[in-house]
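Running this now, will post back.
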Amino acid sequence: MKLAALTLALAAPMLAQNSSVFYASQYPGADASVQTNHCIAAAAAAGGGTCDASMFTGVHLMSQQVSVCPSGNNNNPVHLILPVAGTWEWGLTDGVSCGIKQCSGESISSPATLGSGGAHLVLMPSSPSTNMDSLYCTDPHGPGNGWGYYYASGFSARNVDSSIGPTTTFVHGLIHIQKFYDQSTWRYIGAQNAYGDAWHIDSGCCGASFDHITASASQASGVPQATQGGIPLTIGAGTWIPSASIQSGSNVLTASQTNLTSAYIGMHINILSGAGIPSGTTVIAVTPNSLTMSANATATETGLSLLLNASNGTGPGVAGASFRDMSVNAPEIGLPHLLLMGAYSTTSLNFSNVYMENTGTDTTTPFIFLSPDMSGIWFSNVWTHASGNPATKYAIESHTTRPWGVFGLTTPAGINDFTSGTSHIIHPAGPAKIPQFLNVSNWTNTAP
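Update: finished.
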């Protein structure tokens, strides 16, 4: 691969052999994805450098995953420059490919670092049969089969076309980030998925940051629908199923939502409320609104609240990361804006300057859901805005007994805390504001 890439680099007629900048349009290929992959390989083979794909503005149909993962490059770093504006579309159907896949030590950026309303490159599906891992992902196999180091900025991912979106599948949402290490950074990136989850951040550690990101799981109008959409932002592997039903003796569990994917196969099913699922039961098959379990139910139940964990009650999760200056909006009805999973391995997270908006009819689902056993989750200056300010829609529902806290929360109804296993309501101290809530003193609630 290295020899072939070097041959391409030397063959490009307009490139100086010692140049550190390589231009994707000067490489052969049937489309922009093929040309960009050749450019990346050439930059790596030359000892590292920049692959400039900024000329691919307009609409481009991609036949390949763009892999910022040059093979045989002896860790030579490559930086990929994206267009200021444009649309890159994929219709891959293998269920594992991404639109852009980034490997450890490589970087991606666009000259435009505007918010979601600004000009930038948009990643999109091109076909109703699209079946991919995501439109952007990180490599699950870092150096030495470990984790990786990343920088990415200046693009967005979108799945809102009503003629394409309803039947597309993105196994891990539109943006799938996992297994990252120290100081990895993602900024000025947005994702809007009207037909599933937007962001999945599965696992990572140690000083990583996410800033100026947006996440939405609704139609372009911002109004969620009861049978479409998903969760805007999930941190930690797994999901929450707020309402499900089973029949005694059956191993098929029916969920209220329709955004379940094969990502949940092999996960453990843990009961948050209800009964009838034996301990140790795992998921063996999935449809968009049902799970096939490894064991039969022992009781008929409706209204089950369930957590799907990658292992029985534990990780993987995200630790020591910061999330700041971000907007997380409009999930599917019955699902939260922000879901935190991962149990003990999700810890030491800082959220600051976070805006959440709900413009639909959901008056009961919490904006933020904390699953059991995580700790050190700190929120600062969070605004959860709901139309009509319903008194039954809480900003945070917490099921962890371990330390977490809020410093400045604007909320319609307050906090619903389940530290003792039963609901404990923390009401706003002022006009829909909680100046401080700490669950730290012997893991006992202290009201604001």
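The chain is about 5% helix and 40% strand. More later if anyone needs it.
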